[in-house]
Specification:
The complex is a heterodimer. Chain A contains nine helices and two strands. Chain A is an all-alpha fold. Chain A has one domain: Glycosyltransferase, CATH 1.50.10. Chain B folds into four domains: 172 residues, Alpha Horseshoe (Serine Threonine Protein Phosphatase 5, Tetratricopeptide repeat), CATH 1.25.40.120; 98 residues, Rab geranylgeranyltransferase alpha-subunit, insert domain (Immunoglobulin-like, Sandwich); 58 residues; 111 residues, Ribonuclease Inhibitor (Leucine-rich repeat, LRR (right-handed beta-alpha superhelix)). Classes of the chains: A mainly alpha, B alpha/beta. At the A-B interface, helix 5 of A face helix 7, helix 9, helix 11 and helix 15 of B.
Chain lengths: 229, 568
């Protein structure tokens, strides 16, 4: 019979936000040139693509692109890599972000997708990326941001998720890992911090769910992607 | 990086590890730089193949190297004969198999395999399918493999029936099978589609049918068989969530056709409101208004400026056009893009008129069920209820019972539905906000149905713990709304779709329409959507925290200038 895959959070896991440790971790990471480039490049590719998409929509056939993305919608309201591919939180994030930037959020079945997304929350409070997988801090971003975009972030238990994310911190080195006890890396550190911001942590700047950038930066350049209420 | 456990080591162990890493790094960097140099110099030789192979064996996610390797292979295609090319690509498939053994989840390796298979002069699709079988038997949630399998099936024309049988086998033997049920959801409509106009026949699939279009319909005969299959799955293992997700999809209704669902005309305001079955951008879909045979030049506006896409649009007619109550007028609204239209006649002596398909007509909240389907669903409900007694803490049972009751008789089962939702919130408290919203949605659907059966324009739903408002596009004609004693914290912007919330003073009668809110409205911003209800005259806010704020009366007067009757 099916065993529920999940992690156990130990009683001595970190339970408060170790801001200073994380600042030190990221600062130190910048000094190791090769590693830094690999991680940042992937992220910037995404961000730059989004920025181009929002600034120069006329260079691509947006209708066809929307048609393609919608053709990737599945029976459960989610999206996969290609038409016919299984729903996955990472792809769902890309597609909801895309539909927000192209003003097509009304094409989603927000109630159905929101249900699939809130079912990603496991008893530990962490979120997985699809059914019967282990929780992972980066899904605190992919899943949470998607829920925020479709106006259903209140469908997950925020307190339990926050507890999970905090437990993924490394008290010695700073930074966040995918799960409590694992090795930290900048990728999970970004998404742990961003996830906490979406949950309303007042020590962190408000983050925009579509572009994963601080809201005040986007306000400055007048970029406010659609969100469902 | 996923799944790397942090292990503590001594300072000496750290130093030894560091030295070893340095050495490996030097070898790696040398090989990598050699590849980059060769590529820059346009070299596509054997050494390049060897170097890239060496690096990709342990770094299959190094996309640039796969790109270079493909350039080398493309070059070889031009200087070797077909038999040689066949051998080269077969060797490539062999190399890829060893890569996949080490890392079966590398995007780079799977993509390259797909590329090679497509270029192979004599592909062996049976072998590729068998590779997928083996890979999936080790991990049937490997989506890379599933996607590759779909490509192989498409390229080699494997019959849909054969793949359906494959999913049967997998579902029968493995408990982690969301991927199989998902695949099934894409295959079923291909094999057993419901033709759009014929009720429930199993015919030949139209060539252009795609599971991802709004034809998510499966013909009824097959649907009923499918219920049985899924039931076997969740009875065997009630905690296997995939079957429950799939079952919810089977219980769902097909998406509605795109059409104009309502046209409303107000003589006094000289305004036309149009409701669509789904959100549209009226300014770009060719919406045409014809009045007494004459096309009218009008500006269509969304009910709320923020929404470019909306199910409800309004326009104003030139003053004097229809204001004389002695005249009869005929209106037609054309949705030219969809070749759909709706007529509405405004008779003499009448101050308003409408033409609509009700929620009941459109089977929005409940489908008309055939005798067979009713019988099947009733026995399903009975079975799941029995299962729920055996597994009182299983939330899937509870939710599915609710969904079955909705499908069978939403009004008849209302009380039971509410009780089950309460249990559900206790059993699965993490998602209690979801269940509250879902319950609110179902209560609103029931209220709309009751309103339609009674043929009144009063929407009254109080003391139902409503946490959200939805289906507001169905309330276009509502004149009187009562939302007291609920848990609403704000009015959604879509509230502006209630275009008929207004006062009318006719020659023969005086009618007062008002709102009664006794929820959790606490700030002025919460009431913003009311500013879009054109002629709201009376507002009862008693019992809401907002009445306690200083200067509330003055601020409300500023926000809602048309309200003359404000009860605080």
């Amino acid at each position: 019979i099916a065993q529920l895959k999940d992690v156990i959070i130990k009683p001595d896991a970190p339970s408060s936000l170790l801001l200073d440790k994380h600042a030190d971790y990221i600062a130190a990471y910048g000094s190791k040139k090769d590693d830094y480039v690999t991680y940042l490049y992937c992220f910037f590719q995404l961000v730059i693509f989004f920025m181009i998409l929002s600034g120069k929509m006329d260079t691509i056939n947006v209708d066809k692109a929307v048609e393609f993305v919608l053709s990737c919608m599945n029976f459960d309201g989610g999206f996969g890599c290609r038409p016919g591919s299984e729903s996955h939180a990472g792809q769902i994030y890309c597609c909801t972000g895309f539909l927000s930037l192209t003003g097509q959020l009304h094409q989603l079945n927000a109630d159905l997708l929101g249900w699939w997304l809130c079912e990603r929350q496991l008893p530990s409070g962490g979120l997985n990326g699809r059914p019967e997988k282990l929780p992972d801090v980066c899904y605190s971003w992919w899943v949470l941001a998607s829920l925020k975009i479709i106006g259903r972030i209140h469908w997950i238990d925020k307190a339990k998720l926050r507890r999970f994310i905090l437990a993924c911190q490394d008290e010695e080195t700073g930074g966040f890992a995918d799960r409590p006890g694992d090795m930290v890396d900048p990728f999970h550190t970004l998404f742990g911090v961003a996830g906490l911001s979406l949950l309303g942590d007042e020590q962190i700047k408000a983050v925009n769910p579509v572009l994963c950038m601080p809201e005040d930066v986007l306000q400055r350049i007048g970029l406010q992607p659609d969100l469902l209420s | 990086q996923h799944g790397r456990v942090k292990v503590k080591t001594t300072a000496q162990q750290e130093e030894e590890k560091r030295k070893e890493r340095e050495k490996k790094l030097q070898i790696y960097v040398a090989a990598r730089d050699a590849c980059f140099t060769k590529r820059k110099d346009g070299v596509f030789d054997d050494e390049a193949l060897q170097l890239t192979q060496q690096l990709l064996s342990s770094n299959p996610d190094f996309a640039t190297l796969w790109n270079y390797r493909r350039e080398i292979l493309l070059h070889l295609e031009t200087v070797r004969n077909q038999d040689e090319v066949q051998k080269i690509y077969e060797a490539e498939l062999s190399f890829l198999e060893s890569c996949l053994k080490v890392n079966p989840k590398s995007y780079g390796s799977w993509h390259h395999r797909g590329w090679v298979s497509a270029r192979l002069p004599r592909p062996d699709w049976a072998r590729e399918l068998s590779l997928c079988d083996r890979c999936l038997s080790l991990d049937d949630r490997n989506f890379h493999c599933w996607d590759y399998r779909r490509m192989v099936v498409k390229m080699s024309g494997v019959p849909v029936k054969q793949e359906l049988d494959f999913t049967d086998r997998l579902i029968g033997s493995n408990f982690s099978n969301y991927s199989s049920w998902h695949y099934r959801s894409t295959l079923l409509p291909l094999l057993h589609p419901q033709a759009p106009d014929t009720p429930s026949q199993c015919g030949n699939p139209p060539p252009s049918a795609s599971p991802q279009t709004h034809f998510h319909r499966v013909c009824e005969e097959q649907l009923l068989k499918e219920y049985e299959l899924v039931q076997n799955a969740f009875f065997t293992d009630p905690n296997d969530q995939s079957a429950w997700f799939y079952y919810r999809w089977l219980l769902g209704r097909a998406e509605r056709d795109e059409m104009i669902s309502c046209v409303y005309v107000s003589r006094e305001e000289e305004r036309v409101a149009v409701a669509f079955s789904r959100p549209v951008n009226a300014q770009s879909v060719g919406l045409l208004l014809i009045l007494d045979g004459q096309p009218q030049r009008v500006e269509w506006q969304s009910v709320h400026p923020h929404f470019k896409n909306s199910p409800v649009w309004i326009c104003s007619l030139p003053p004097g056009t229809i204001s004389d109550v002695a005249n009869e007028h005929n209106l037609t609204v054309h949705w030219t893009e969809k070749h759909s239209h709706r007529d509405c006649a405004l008779y003499t002596g009448r101050s308003e008129s409408w033409c609509r398909d009700t929620a009941t007509d459109l089977e929005l909240f409940r489908s008309e069920l055939s005798v067979e389907k009713t019988s099947v669903l009733q026995s399903e409900l009975q079975s799941v209820r029995q299962l729920q007694e055996l597994e009182p803490l299983n939330k899937w049972c509870l939710l599915t019972i609710i969904l079955l009751m909705r499908a069978l008789d939403p009004l008849g089962y209302e009380k039971e539905t509410l009780a089950h939702f309460q249990t559900l919130k206790d059993v699965d408290s993490m998602r209690s906000a979801y269940y509250s919203d879902l319950c609110s949605k179902f209560m609103i659907e029931n209220t709309i149905l009751k309103m339609e059966y009674a043929e009144v324009r009063v929407f009254s739903i109080s003391d139902r713990k409503l946490t959200t408002l939805c289906h507001l596009d169905q309330l276009l004609l509502v004149t009187h709304i009562n939302l007291s004693s609920n848990q609403l914290q704000q009015l959604p912007p879509q509230f502006a779709m209630l275009q008929c919330l207004e006062v009318r003073i006719g020659t023969l009668f005086f009618l007062l329409f008002f709102i009664n809110l006794n929820s959790e409205i606490s700030t002025l911003a919460d009431l913003q959507p009311l500013a879009s209800c054109p002629k709201l005259k009376r507002l009862d806010l008693r019992g809401n925290p907002i009445t306690q704020t200083t200067n509330a009366e003055a601020e409300l007067a500023g926000l809602l200038p048309s309200v003359t009757d404000l009860l605080l």
